[in-house]
From TrEMBL:
Annotated ranges, domain EcxA zinc-binding: 422-719
Protein name: Zinc-dependent metalloprotease
PANTHER family assigned to the protein according to its UniProt record, in alphabetical order: PEPTIDASE M1A AND M12B, ZINC DEPENDENT METALLOPROTEASE DOMAIN LIPOPROTEIN
CDD domains in the record: ZnMc_MMP_like_2
Residue span(s) of domain DUF5117: 94-286
Keyword Hydrolase: yes
Keywords carried by this UniProt record: Hydrolase, Metalloprotease, Protease, Signal
PROSITE patterns reported in the protein's UniProt record: PROKAR_LIPOPROTEIN
UniProt signal peptide: 1-20
Amino acid sequence: MLRLLALVLLTVLAAGCATTTPPRPTADAPGGAALPTIAAKTAGMERRDGFLPVYWDAAAGKAWLEVPALDTDLLYVVSLAAGLGSNDVGLDRGQLGGERVVRFERVGPRVLLVQPNLRFRADTDNAAERLAVEDAFAPSVVWGFDVGAEGEGGAVLLDATDFVVRDAHGVAQRLKGTGQGAFALDRARSALVPAELKAFPQNTELEARLTFASDAPGRYVRDVAADPTAVTVRVRHSFVALPPPGYTPRPFRPASGYFPTGYADYAVPIGEEVERRFITRHRLQCAAPPDASGLCDPVEPIVYYLDPGTPEPVRGALLDGARWWTDAFRAAGFRDAYRVEVRPDSVDPLDVRYNTIQWVHRATRGWSYGASVTDPRTGEILKGAVSLGSLRVRQDYLIAEGLLAPYTGENAAGFDPEGDPMLALALARLRQLSAHEVGHTIGLAHNFAASTQGRASVMDYPAPLAAVAEGGVDLSDAYGVGLGDWDVQAVRYGYTPDESALPAILAETRARGLLFLTDADARPAGAASPVAALWDNGADAVAALRSQMAVRRAALDRFGEAAVREGRPLATLEEVLVPLYLGHRYQVEAASHLVGGVAYAYTERGDGSAPPAPVPGDVQAAALGALLEAVTPAALALPDAARLIPPRPPGYGATRELFDRRTGLTFDPVAPAETAATLVFGFLLDPDRAARLAYQPALDGSLPGLADVLERTTTAVRTAPAATPYEMALRRATLSAWVDGLLGLAADDDAAPEVQAAAVDHALALGAQLSADGGGADGALDRWLADRIFRFLDREYDPEGGVERLDAPPGAPIGSR
């Protein structure tokens, strides 16, 4: 019995020892040593207090990040603080790299920065159901840190130096992807930027100066970098506090005009759509119920701050345009909910609490951007960040110079700013641009149908509306002023406090005939929508093209020395000529949408919208006629002054803003016509458009087919009147461009079989015609083109080529392919 009692006691004691862990005074450190306190570790360092406190250790060149609370979600954003300055490469100052929700998780002596996979979720109270989705889709570990010190409440201190001094923005990949060479981060020439280690109440900013080295840099890098073999940019890492509760995501509807965000919710009932979609917008809430006027005061207004480095008169124009949105927020039910100011010294542009508009410089003209820092969980915009390219305003000025040729008499050397018509046009466009980019940062997408509805939206890309006037061109109505009707309706949908009113707002927008079509409907060369296009004007694309051609001809007839200021090299006339001569290119694109076009809208069942319908045959025929008029020798001919542009002098080397040429240093009088004709034929012969043309007569016999379009184009090109030997040379250049385009379509294995068949058949017939007609002034070219066609048709068969057949949708696991 005594032995049994002793055995029992020993067993109990052993069990107690097995389940008791001796307390450790602090977390494990490498080698088992106790970690110091944060206060002790950071003694002598410079502290920047804020959301996540930052410590700068000047002696070691290190940045230490204090994380007060682990396992807490926050936002992580990478951006480019200082860029390359090349629009072609696209590494611009202020460029955002996307938002990620992350959390710091501790595992023994290390802390992992974990990015949960929020693209797939289960919105349910069932923890097991949520876990099933979380475990189905991989999260990511962004970085791993060693814990350097500990503080109260589980706070940890992390060495953030290596985390920040790395290519988190993908600079080397971008340089390689744009053909600029194999660059690699040179750590010896990279370091933190101490002055830009900042902490604010709701965000912490860490920044590094990164140098990327290459022994074979590309052209665009050589154009802009101080030393193209060592490109230095600044990359910023931002940790942002997620917003507090109280924001209600607003449902995305395709016709609302907003950018969508969302996720797949696997907890929705069977039969409902798994994908949940919301719009992106700022949090704008009433401080109290609306008063008798129907308006309420906001809890916190939306304020944008303009870069004080923006010069006048640009600054005033940008403020004016950005402020246009004030009326739209009032229409949405708010009083004094939106304003724009010049950024005071007390506002740091890195502080996430402030929306910013910055003035960005590049070596070449390029795009402007309206970007946002957005909570990916809900679509709430936390910070709007507008970047406006400074050379855009100069391009608009250049366009106006070509249209007006204004430098005559007392204005030969230039204009006083107060009476400068080119400056007036450029600033009018800048106001519109400012409103446009701010529109993106309040959540709105492009609306490329608005220009066909009387300037219904600043979210379109506007072309300067010009008219032929006595003695020249009238630009008095070049650009609109203020928002359009669609803009106001869109802001009402996104920001009205009464969510129950949303269906009625969409119905009202639809009833007023306000259309919304965006990038996918307008940008492709083979786009089908007759109303969605960039840089166009007017509801009738055919009439607008003919009007544009008339303006272009009136300006070309006046073109000459008066298009450049006195004292400038006459060779710079070409810079003015290029946007003038090709000023019709976007209206050509808009008109081409009618050929094989299909009218449609973003419809929903029960909304009463009309189904997709082909553009009527007579309208398609009229559009083709207008396009073919644009490639006649008379339309393509340059004035004598343009043909006498001298070669480039020293200090004014050739740039890509000039026409390509085959005449060496001298101006090529034929190449511009070939360029313009190639643009027209490129739209007509796009494989997508060609397929619609090939198929549409089978559905409606009143519509033209592809063979009809090819035949009509060939006849028009070959028989176009040519009144002078110069115009005959232009006709030959146009015919050559047409044959090139036709053979390109015939050889395009991505084109539909019926399209390739029609192109080959027409090429065969054209070759026979050119061979038979190989006499007269065009005889040599006719025979050369005929031989080229026959050599193309007789080319060796490639068994690896041919039409790439369409894949069937996957059948497994239900069936097989």
